[in-house]
Amino acid sequence: MLQIIHDLSPLINSLNTLLVFAILFFAMLISTTSTIQRMVSYYRLQAVGLAVIVVLTVATAPPFNGALASIAALPIMMAFLVPPLLARATIVAPAARTTAPSRRVRAVLRDLSGAERSAQRVWLQYGRSRLLPTMTVAVDLLLTIFGFVVAYQLITRTPSAVQSHFTKNSPEINSLAVGLSMLLIGIFTMINRRDIISQIIGLLVMEHGLFLVVVKVIVQPALTVAFVGSLFFYVLITLLILVWLLPELHRVSHSIDLDDQCELKG
Amino acid sequence: MPISAEQAVLGVVLAPLVAMACALLLAWPLTRRNLHLSDPAAERLRTVVTITASVVSLLLTLGLMGLIEGRTDPIEIEVLGTTWLYLDALSVFFLLLVNLIVLVASFYASHYLATRKAAHLPAHPTLFHALFNFFHLTMVLVLIVSSPVYLWIAVELTTIASTILVGFRQDRRALEAAWKYIVVTSTGIIFALVGTLLLAMAVPPGDEMNWTTLMADAPALDAGLVQLSFLFVLVGYGTKAGFAPMHTWLPDLHGEAPYPISALLSGVLLKCALYAILRFMIITNATLGGNDFTSGALLICGLFSLVLAVPLILKENSFKRVLAYHSLEHMGIIAFGLGVGTSLALFAALLHALNHAVTKALMFLTYGVVQGGYQQAGMAERGNPVGVLRAMPISGILLALGGLALVGSPPFNIFLSEFMILWASLTRASAAAASSPDVVIESAFVVAIVLFLLSLALIFGGLMRHLGRLLIDTPPQGVRHPTVAQVVPLVMLLAVVIVFGVTVPSFALFDLSKLLDASVKVIQCLTPTCLP
Q1: Measuring CA to CA, which residue among B173, B302, B188 is closest to residue B239?
Q2: Of B156, B169, B179, which to mutate for an interface test with A (greatest number of A Cβ within 10 Å)?
Q3: Do A237 and B201 count as a contact with CB atoms less than 8 A apart?
Q4: B22 within some domain
Q5: Which structural domain range is residue B112 located in?
Q6: Count of domains observed in chain B
């Protein structure tokens, strides 16, 4: 098996590079598309692509690193959880307002089934940007170029051991550049959108960028467990937003529009 | 029986953990049935447990002050061959700050819940006490974990605890504040993790990444990578520390949080983020062989925060939001002091962190008590009280004196630390003028000092205007006076504000001066573990 993987490693590396650019492309699509419906679909595809990248990275870098491989579970889990949770936050099911913890969990699960279908009509109406689509694409491209410049500058300045890691595996440099670009595109998406659901998708794109940077940048196996642990904690924060804060904010403000979330000023 | 340093550290961690577990257990009907506890009795017990945990934590921290004094090496606790906890004088100083403010705030948890109950609003005492102790635990963890990655995780945990505590009221304003806070800080914290990753890239292969090894390896690390790491960390943890321009969540969060939590957020949480920046600053300085790079970044960051705070404090706003903008001002002053970078400036900046925490806790807690009293007279939960000096004279005097302290009037604590920072910056400016023929550097220092002084003067006027409106006017009828139990902790805080305005305590059992000196040595990398 190991021999087969070793023989196929040039092909796997090429596929890996292709996927890395594909998830950058999805980040740009998320940033430019005009409906939440499409943003969610692209997010899902991006998550699956990221999980495959993690698996391929671990497969081509023996010995097997279980901690690093476990990162693949995160985007897959989020690809399953995020769309129904966003849908639940969009339709604000009143059943989730019961107080008993066990009832609340059951109510959340009940809300999630079929939530996506119910939310689709709202999702088709929301997702507008502040900037025109052409301007959004231009900003995305500029941010990507900036990400690549920073990543390549970074690699030329790193110590020799790290440099050898990157020069031997050129896909790593591109992955680092794509990860940094995704962080910037994610922030830009959050600023550029006018509703809280799209804003959170921007944060989720940043999260994917972070996953990619962690997977590709960790040179030392000794540090893997700690960094992977930190990613799991970051996902906890995202889930806190998705499960509790987003639906509650929608419930009390009766709107997912950002312009309606401005009670606090001054 | 004397306890070891390791036992004291474990005690500091376990106290809030046990209190959190007790708060949750007391919500379980079986526990209450077995202990024959009624609802009010269970609530009293929760309060007692929370306060006891805070007292134990503070006493153990005071013990640690003495224990760390006699050591040349840091306290490190290993489990299963991995070092998890690390404490030096700097950690103990921040631990003292955290535990002092947590103790005072813990006295007001029950008052806040009682005020909500009296107004027929949902109180959720179990959740509040459990989260209060969890928040305490997470802040303690930030200060004692042994590695930058664990530090990041601990900071994340503080975000989880504080977001739920702020959104606790579940009304529109509270949820909006929690939303803004978590979105801004979660974005910022990603940069802190990227900064940590960049530092990890610089670590020699095979080495662990903890504070001890990082200090030992620092001179050999790649300078460019470490510099970039520091900038990412400054943006990331700077967001959490409330530095401008990433401060936008600050007034919403402090304004909408339950008042004991506002005291913790402003007084303590911002300092925990500052501690994280300090840890990276120490490594960056050790790698670069000087503090010019970090000083420049912190001076710019501090001055920008201070100057930006001026118009925000001057404009019309609710009093809690004004207090929040004062956090922006004081975090700016602390960063400015750290940026000046001399021994005196570092000493003063750390002292200012403690002084700001104490004074801000006094203001938030007193204002919370005042709001509680006015709510009895029919004021809305977030209304602005007027005529406090006549309606609640003791609270009014506490607010007036606390306000004077906050804007840096003598003879209060903040005056002393601000004066020390100013003195240090003047000394640094004259030293720069003497040693460098570069007129630009000299002029930049002079401009910075002028801006510093001008901002302080304008802020003084701004707060006096807000205080005037709050204190002097005709109060409504039926305002309830605070109880003795509510006033005593506040008076003790005021005593600290006054005493620290005259001297930095240096007693046999509480030698703060020595602890600050030792902390400055840690920052300047003059400890045996740091020296080559």
Answers
A1: B188
A2: B179
A3: no
A4: yes
A5: 1-144
A6: 1
Distance CA B59, CA A5 (A): 59
Is residue B486 one of the residues assigned to a domain?
no
How far A203 CA sits from the closest chain B CA (Å)? 7
Q: Which residues numbered 59-118 in A keep a CB inside 8 Å of some CB on B? A: none
Residue for token pair 């740091």: B530
From the CA of A89, how many Å to the nearest CA of chain B? 13
pLDDT tens for B343-389 read 999 999 999 999 999 999 999 999 999 998 988 887 776 678 889 99
DSSP state, residue B506: B
pLDDT tens for residues B414-435?
999 999 999 999 998 888 777 7
> What single DSSP character describes residue B86?
E
Q: Taken in order B180, B184, B187, B190, is the CA torsion positive or negative?
A: negative
- The DSSP result for chain A, as a single string, is -HHHHHHHHHHHHHHHHHHHHHHHHHHHHHHH-S-HHHHHHHHHHHHHHHHHHHHHHHHTSSSP-HHHHHTTHHHHHHHHHHHHHHHHHHHT-GGGG--SHHHHHHHHHHHHTTHHHHHHHHHHH---BSS-HHHHHHHHHHHHHHHHHHHHHHHHHS-HHHHHHHHHSHHHHHHHHHHHHHHHHHHHHHHHBSBHHHHHHHHHHHHHHHHHHHHHH---HHHHHHHHHHHHHHHHHHHHIIIIIHHHHHHHHS--BGGG--S---
Integer Cα distance of A88 and A250 in angstroms: 10
Both tokens of B148, joined, read 């930058």
DSSP per-residue string spanning A101-114: HHHHHHHHHHHHTT
Residue range B449-458, pLDDT digits in tens: 899 999 999 9
Residue partners of A11: CB distance under 8 A and separation at least 6: none
ipTM for the predicted complex comes to: 0.89
Question: Which value, to the nearest 10 degrees, does the dihedral of the CA atoms of residues B304, B306, B312, B315 take?
Answer: -130
Answer yes or no: is B19 within a domain: yes
Give the Cα separation of B239 and B396 in Å (integer).
Answer: 33
Sequence-distant (≥ 6) Cβ neighbours of residue B180 within 8 angstroms = A264, B248, B249, B252, B253
User: Is residue B251 a part of any domain in this protein?
Assistant: no
Chain B interface includes A149 (CB < 8 A): no
| pTM reported for the whole predicted model | 0.93
The two three-digit tokens of residue B503, written as one number = 């001297």
